[in-house]
Amino acid sequence: MNIMLFHSVYGLRPAVLAAADRLREAGHQVHVPDLYDGQTVDTAEEGRDLKDKIGTEELLRRAIAASAPYSDRGLVYAGFSLGGSIAQNLAMGDEKARGLLLLHGTSDIAEGVSVDELPVQLHVADPDPFETHDWLSAWYLQMQRAGADVEIYRYPGAGHLYTDPELPDYDEASAEQTWRVALGFLESLHEE
pTM here? Predict the structure, then answer.
């Protein structure tokens, strides 16, 4: 699989690079664009400030520019939290997308967007202050209406970015379960 992996609001941190290496070890080609041009932050608040300073439209433009050279091959879009919302936006607009792997984050779904049985897998903490039960229920229904084939995996007691070992949210058991399931999902896309 050819995977475009987007970082969280914290920037391109070691955990994102380690995730990319893990995916490469499983036989995937992984591209990890730095949407913050080398900047990283230590807190979610600083990350939101940096995201707002750059702007959502500019982040999407950077993501599209990074993906464009590979999109003709049929990408799997993936991302962590903010990166998941970016990945979702790109996958929903790319008719050649092979799949969408969301870790800790989703995005609004534009009215009238349609995908043809796009495989989507979401891994999220339960509860998650950024991905509430009501939000996820509505998101799931909207994704189904758009034509996506969605699976949601919830991890009770984990913090929002529970796959990043450098953050207080880290939950080793949930992180390992996430990677086992996600790698199986990617393998299933490879078989299609």
Answer: 0.96
- Report the b/e string of 73-107 with b at 16+ CB within 10 A: eebbbbbbbbbbbbbbbbbbebeebbbbbbbbbbb
What are the Cα distances from residue 43, in Å, to 32, 54, 63, 130? 21, 17, 22, 15
Residues 160, 169: Cα–Cα separation, whole Å: 6
- Rounded CA Rg of the chain: 15
pLDDT of residue 191: 62
**Topology adopted by domain 2-191:** Rossmann fold (3.40.50)
Q: Which amino acid is located at 103 in the chain?
A: L
Continuous segment of H or E residues that includes residue 149: strand 149-156
> Domain boundaries in the chain?
2-191
pLDDT of residue 60: 97
pLDDT digits (tens, 9 = 90+) for 28-66: 999 999 999 999 999 999 999 999 999 999 999 999 999
